[in-house]
């Protein structure tokens, strides 16, 4: 496949699950290929929707509504990647009782393509995470967690490449620092490596060696820390690195209506997005690929 420049500043919705379908009728671009990225983060074992009496999120969320929405989007465009940015576990009695089995099985039914690992995914220990892997019909990526001296060795890859209608997409994962955040006995000999250096290595490999048309960082390091300005986060990562096109984040439960657009170290645009928590929102980003070298910006934020 010839190298394609993707049309940036995409159509994205940070979608309220179950409130309707997404229309892309405003786009009328000929001879392009269309890729839809759907994503979640920090679902935290929320299987059921919030009750109608909930003061903040009445009737919102729920796996059934999310599944129906995803199915409708796939009918609209078969070229879909469904990703999760970590903290799948911990938050409701479903996790306490089933230990993550239900979460992985439901994600498999929704045909998730890939996930990264959040700090709460270690809450039953690294053994608990390992024991649930057979229930996941999708893979996990984390480039800066070194699992070589643990039972997870070989089960988590630094990156994965997907092909959708001739579009080559590379996705690598990042995790937050575990020391002081997770009990040492839960992550054992897992080694945390610097996200910035690792990201630069991964993006260089994916963009220049693997010749990916789109490079995505699936991150669980947090969007931004107001009280810790020097702490590495998605917004800092975007400005300090090269060759990353999109950062899908988690950890800080940040609700964004549309992606933040930042300049990377080469002055090129990077999209950064995160969709809150508890399965309330579903992120959607649509990329359009052309065969020539021109770049056109098209963007729309649609509430579902």
Instruction: Give the fraction of residues assigned to helices.
Output: 10-25%
What distance lies between the first and last C-alpha atoms, to the nearest angstrom? 34 Å
What class, by secondary structure content? alpha/beta
Query: How is the main sheet built?
Result: 7 strands, mixed
- Gyration radius over CA: 18 Å
The total of beta strands comes to 15
User: What is the chains' assembly state?
Assistant: single chain
> Would you tell me the overall average pLDDT?
88
Shape: globular
What fraction of the residues are assigned to beta strands by DSSP?
A: 25-35%
**Alpha plus pi helix count:** 7
Main sheet: strand order = 1-15-2-3-4-5-7
In short:
The protein is an alpha/beta fold and 304 residues long. It contains 7 helices and 15 strands.
Structure in words:
Mean pLDDT is 88; it is low at 1-27 and 293-304. With 304 residues, the chain is α/β, with parallel strands linked by helices. The two termini are 34 Å apart. A hairpin with a 5-residue loop joins strand 13 and strand 14. It has helices at 63-76, 93-98, 101-109, 125-132, 184-187, 195-209, 234-240, and strands spanning 5-16, 33-40, 80-84, 114-115, 139-141, 145-146, 156-157, 159-164, 167-175, 191-192, 214-220, 246-248, 260-263, 269-273, 281-290.
